[in-house]
Amino acid sequence: MVSLSVGTLIWVSLQPLIRLFLCVACGFAITKADIFPIVAARGAGQIMLNITLPNLMFSKIVPAFNSQNISALGPLVVVAFLYEGIGILMSLLIKQFFWVPHRFRYGIIVAGGWGNVGDIPTSVVMSITGSAPFNGTDDQNLSVAYIAAFLLIFCITLFPMGGSRWIAMDYVGPDVENHEVQEMMRLKRKRLMEGWKKFFHWRSRQSQADLETPTETEPNENEKHMHSTAVELRPCTDKQLSFDGAAAGYTETMVPLHSAEAMSSQVTVSAAPTIFQAETLVQPHPLPSFSKGLSADPVQPVPPKDKPSIRKRILVQGIASLRSLLTPASLSIIISFIISVIPPLKALFVPGVPGTNISPAPDGQPPLAFLMNTATFIGAASVPLGLITLGSALARLKVPRNEWKFLPVGSIMWLAVGRMLVMPILGVLICQGLTNVGFIDENNNVLRFVCIFLSCLPTATTQVFLTQVYSGTGSAEHLSAFLIPQYILMFITMTALTAYTLQLLFH
């Protein structure tokens, strides 16, 4: 085993992050200098997604995989799904205890579940596995091929499986002011605390009752009189949600039973417009007017349209999912895996494939080696171009300098801590556990390094582009506040995780 000093570990871990920072800084600087407009940035992103990235995946997967090591796809897929599932669960827990802007109520789930599995890990992992203590080019190709499995799961879960629909759901329905969301969260916490108090009070009474002998006593005359003259009370909850800027909340009052029954026969006209204002999103016909009282003529319901059959809906959904999967990057990854495990096909691109005998080209290389060389040449631009567009996207995010007191600081910070601190710890524990049970090959250091490293990724910047599309205004104002702390913590946590993982693998 290779023994690495602390200084060497820190330098090996920090060096690729410095290169990543400089590349991102270039995109940030030219965007701030107004020489890289948004049209150019979008064009560069399209070139990266549809040309350079597919070529990079093809040039790395085909020579790296074979029928012997294709079994590594199983652990990669399982770990990828685990990371996304843990991230989604973490976001849901954050939503339960901290308020989130109304237009980001589902976006936080995507921010927690989908990390930046593209340019950032590719840049760092290629740099680390391309030199000692790894085995140079072979391990470098293998590491990028392993990342391709994570990227494939990312594409499948975000698009065909509907992860991106959560972002679209943020912009359905009327807007809700932040102070209304905060008030609802405050009341939710209050009810939660009261529930816990009642639970512990009930538990303490049960424990005390178990220690005492129960005795039955007859009520005295005063108790009988109080019981006969007491008015039966029951809670009446009035829940009102306002979309016109008024504060929303819950009011709970105790009213006599006979008064509640009398009130149930009346209609509170003032609350009707607020309720029906939200319902107009799903009502196919106009609603009755309540401004003139209840004497308005009833509206004749419109017959509902015939819904398509279940078979037709499944077919339409399947076709839509298939179309979203047929992107250049996904197709390149799938085709590359197929070619890599079929020796006669692989021998057309890569020399020295065992068990094959294919006549070489005039230059002594395989017949289609020129295609592999072309893919390698074009793919080399993928990582720098992706990091430049990342810097450009970060430069266009609105930095909330003097607005932090109005932002959901609790959810922002806990999401950053969850993704950049908690997830790496869980990643190490998960990968070590899978290694101990034999699911991950203990001797495959590249596989173990990639699985652990990809647990420490900030939220994918793909969400920025999707949010800009679905918002209708081209902005991603809420997302920026959640991204910035993660990308600041990234340089610290990635360096620490990389150094620890190298020490773990090569101690």
From TrEMBL:
Residues that span the membrane, as ranges: 6-28, 73-94, 106-128, 140-159, 314-342, 370-394, 406-426, 446-466, 487-506
Region (Disordered): 207-228
Subcellular location field: Membrane
GO BP annotations, alphabetical order: transmembrane transport
Gene Ontology CC, one term: membrane
Record keyword Transmembrane helix present: yes
UniProt cross-references to Pfam families, sorted A to Z: Mem_trans
Major site of localization recorded for this protein: membrane
Membrane topology, as annotated: Multi-pass membrane protein
Keywords, sorted A to Z: Membrane, Transmembrane, Transmembrane helix
Protein name: Auxin efflux carrier
Organism (species): Serpula lacrymans var. lacrymans (strain S7.3)
